[in-house]
Design a protein that fits this description.
Strands 1, 4, 6, 7, 8 and 10 form a 6-stranded antiparallel beta sheet that branches. Strands 12, 15, 17, 18, 19 and 21 form a 6-stranded antiparallel beta sheet that branches. Strand 6 and strand 7 form a beta hairpin. This protein is an alpha+beta fold. Helix content is 17%, strand content 31%.
């Protein structure tokens, strides 16, 4: 085996160049040596240095280098619709006095431009108190409780506010870190800010960073608003926009101290392509060919047999069975009026249209390394998982069909649940369906996977069900 001659130090250098999700979901499955290297703090420290997340001269050490890396990869604004581009969606209106909340375009009457030209709109209050809020579920956003407790990353709150030039106003902000039971662990409640009439109307930012808040934080409550101070009918109160909550593991970087030359980096890149080229050679071997004492066997077989489950390679690997309406399409997560999937590595999905769209894969078990003897004598469990979601503004229908087939492609066993209908106005969160085939008897040689659906409103475009992260795993 050509891979066995590469020193562990060289492998660590090579693997540190691989994207994080490929390390966990692909490279880690190759063999026990690669698994141990990828599980080591040294690999993730090296990767953080290469990605510019930490200086080689830094004296600070995070509790877990891998978590530190993934917290940076996941970094995003957890507040949805922070710039009023989707009306009041995702916001809970707690108080709506006077002439109620309203959305206006920047710069607004007697206002100033916003520092970021990408921000086009703002929320504006009236002469009675107006408050709105969002409750962020950290687990649902991809931050597991044990990660939050172990790392306790900084939680950075930012909000922008401004007044009209011709009217005074008042601004309030309240942020709470909550436990699983939604009891307050720590809070930020600054004094009310009063802006006098005839101010310069420039936008101001308020920022707070939660640190060392202890274990147990599972939710973040963000609440802001205000009113005008002269009780004028209309919308003369405080204006707010571009609010943000970021989970920040900290900055350990000092840029400009990289010592690798261009030639050294180029050599490493060539080496990684050389090594990864042989992964499929290893994976394609059957258990009988490898032998039960070979360390590659358990890691090469237990893997996802679906090719291109995350739409990273267009429609390669898939057979389009039905392509109705405006046909299948690939979109970036979370998509219009959608939600992020809990898996932070999944960045794309397949989406259907207003007529039935279905696609499939036929898995040849022998080609995937599962010999007839393994399938007939051991009958390992076959676990099927598929993820699907709809848009908030349109209903959709999802379908799934799984068949275990014989050598002649006759159906031996089948899983064909009733179509799942997601009504208009649903929360658009990703859902998954799982089925396990066990004790299915001898003769299984192929697995047929088919899924898809459509929207239920027959709207032109891509308003149908979304699917991604499909998997077929044989539990060797």
């Amino acid at each position: 085996m050509i891979l066995s001659g590469i020193p562990e130090g060289a492998l660590l250098e090579i693997l540190s160049l691989v994207p994080a999700y490929d390390l966990i979901l692909r490279c880690r499955l190759v063999c026990s040596l690669w698994r141990d290297i990828i599980d080591s703090p040294a690999l993730w420290k090296k990767k953080c240095q290469r990605d510019g997340l930490v200086s080689k001269l830094s004296q600070r050490i995070p509790p877990d280098w891998r978590m530190f890396c993934f917290f940076h990869l996941k970094k995003k604004n957890l507040l949805k619709n922070s710039c009023a581009s989707e009306g009041f969606q995702h916001w809970n209106i707690e108080e709506n006095s006077g002439d109620e909340w309203k959305i206006e375009q920047l710069p607004g009457a007697h206002g100033q431009p916003f520092p970021d030209e990408k921000v086009k709109d703002y929320f504006v209050t009236s002469y009675g108190m107006c408050l709105k809020s969002q409750l962020i579920d950290l687990e649902a956003e991809g931050y597991p409780g044990h990660w939050m407790d172990a790392m306790q990353p900084d939680i950075v709150i930012r909000d922008w506010y401004a007044a009209r030039h011709d009217c005074g106003s008042m601004y309030v902000l309240d942020v709470q870190l909550l436990s699983k039971e939604k009891t307050i662990i720590e809070g930020f409640l600054p004094d009310q800010i009063f802006i006098e009439q005839w101010s310069d109307a420039k936008w101001s930012q308020i920022e707070h960073r939660f640190k060392n808040y202890g274990p147990g934080v599972r939710y973040i409550l963000f609440r802001h608003g205000g009113k005008d101070t002269q009780f004028w009918a209309g919308w003369y109160g405080i204006r707010v926009t571009n609010s943000s909550i970021l989970i920040d593991p900290g900055d350990l970087s000092t840029y400009g101290d990289k010592t690798e030359t261009f030639g050294y980096v180029l050599i490493l890149i060539l080496m990684i392509y050389f090594v990864l080229y042989h992964i499929e050679e290893v994976r394609s071997r059957s258990l009988c060919e490898i032998g039960t004492t070979n360390m590659w066997a358990p890691y090469s077989l237990k893997r996802n047999l679906i090719n291109n489950p995350w739409a990273l390679d267009d429609f390669n690997g898939w057979t389009i069975k039905e392509n109705g309406g405006d046909k299948w399409k690939i979109e970036d997560m979370p998509g219009g009026l959608g939600e992020e999937i809990p898996n932070p590595f999944v960045t794309k999905y397949f989406v259907t249209s207003y007529r039935s769209c279905k696609k499939s894969q036929l898995i040849n078990l022998k080609n995937e390394g599962f010999s007839d003897d393994i399938m007939d004598n051991f009958q390992p469990s076959i676990v099927i998982t598929d993820w699907f979601a709809g848009r908030r503004d349109c209903g959709c229908e999802y379908e799934l069909l799984i068949q275990l087939l014989s050598k002649d492609k006759k159906t031996l066993h089948e899983f064909h649940p009733k179509p799942v209908v997601l009504p208009e106005g649903s929360n658009s969160q990703w859902k998954h369906i799982t089925h396990t085939f066990s004790n299915y008897g001898p003769g299984v040689r192929y697995i047929y996977f088919e899924h898809g659906g459509k929207d239920t409103k027959t709207w032109a475009g891509w308003y149908g069900v979304r699917v991604t992260n499909s998997s077929v795993i044989i539990m060797i």
